[in-house]
Every structure is written in C-alpha cells, then in structure tokens.
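Troubleshooting log. The previous structure file for this entry was overwritten by mistake, so regenerating from the original sequence record. Sequence copied from the archived sheet and checked twice against the printout by T.R.
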Amino acid sequence: MPTSTATIGPARIAVWLARGARDLGRAPLASLAHGLVFTIVALAILGIGWNHGWLLAGAFTGFVLPAPALATGLYELSRRLERGDSATLRDAIGAWRAASPALLRFGALLAAIGTAWVGFCWLVVRASAGSGAAAAAASPEGGVAALLRLFADERGAALFVAWIVAGGLVAAIVFAIGVVSVPMLLERRVTLRDAVLASVRVVGEHPFTMALWAAVIMAATLVAALSVVGWVVVVPLLGHASWHAYRDLVGEGAPPAGTPSAAR
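Regenerated output below.
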C-alpha cells in the first residue's frame, strides 16, 4: 500500500535513497549507462566552454535542467524492477520509444528552459561588459579564466550573486513542475497540464520535505561535479530514488479523478 501523503516527512528521503541504491544494484549496467552518458555530455560542454566563458556560465548549469525528463529511462527501470520484470538498457530505451506525446512535449519544454537559461547568462555577462575582466569574459575568446576574473572583482561579485539567485529560481520552478510529472506521464495516461499541476500540488503539500529533497539533489550533483565522473553513479542513484519519491507522494492506481483517459 502506498504511503499516505499525510505521513511523508523528511525521514522518507533516506528511504528513497536506499531504494534508489537498491535499484542501482539490481540493474547496474543499464543504470550506470545513464550516468555515463550524462557525464560524457558534461565533459563535452566543459571542453567546448573552457575557452568560451560566456557560454560555460550558462551551459554547465543549464544542461542539468532537462534532467527530470532525461531520467525517464531510470524511472522505467525502477518501475520494471518494482513489478518483477526485466530491467535492461533495452527496456529503458523502450520507454522513450513508447513515450506519450505529453512526455515528449515536457522534455522539449525543459530543453527550451535550459537553452533560455544559457541565453540569459550570456546576456547578463554582455550587459556587464565594459572593459577589463567583464569584456574579456563576454568576448568569444574569453575563456574560463576570464570568467573567473569577472566574478573576482566587486562588480563581478554582485553579478555572481544575481546569477545564483536567478539560477536558483529557475531550478526551483523546474523542480516543482517536474518532480512528479515526468514519472506520472511515464506511468499514467494523463495530460501534461494535469501532471504538472499534480507535481506543483505535491510540492505545495509537502514544502519542507520537497525543499530538503531538492537540496539533497543539488548537493549530490555539486559533490559529483567535483570529480565529474562522480555523476556516473550519482545520476542513476538520484533517478531511481526520484521514482520512489514519486511512489510515496502520489502512490499507485488509476489516474487522478477528473483526468482524461488519454494524454494529449
């Protein structure tokens, strides 16, 4: 029986992580393959942006915004393990082939948000450019060293704070609309609107637990980023754990009352 939403407190986060680790251990190859792809993309972005600081500022943070949709394969693996079915990489890929139009649209929405964030970061750096470090960071030739110099002076420090605040706001919005909607769209035939509203409602009903869960995800991602290759393990762990968070928060069964029988 699913846990009652009234009983879901911060202590459940440890349960989600433990169950995520269990799923990772039961389907290691398929799970780690997701982490490997994520890591390769991160390294590619780092390589491209190393000599283009204006791009790196947004790209290295923006590419994690579509992560809820990119974790669809991991959700499918956990769902299959839950039912006692096979859980292979082929099964995970099959989840994308069978994805509903609503799920694909949501993935496109998150990708658009990530792209918009990259553009916003570039505009902020350009708006701050005049001479010296700011101009160097905003120029096509400005590398990561120029970007670090930009953040080092007084004006750059204010820019960095504004960047962090804006990034936190965007990440919070993406978390609120995606923490439940993606696994729901995978499992149930609901509309994109209903899935997003359900996700926002869950966050509103459990604000402290959800805020702590978001902080855990952010902290784990940042710690993994210190070695980059840490994402190989952290990404599948968080993906599987997120499925179990969904199970606790929404439960099993038919679509919520009032939802249409087919996703649009």
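The chain has one domain: 18-250. Archived copy saved in two places this time.
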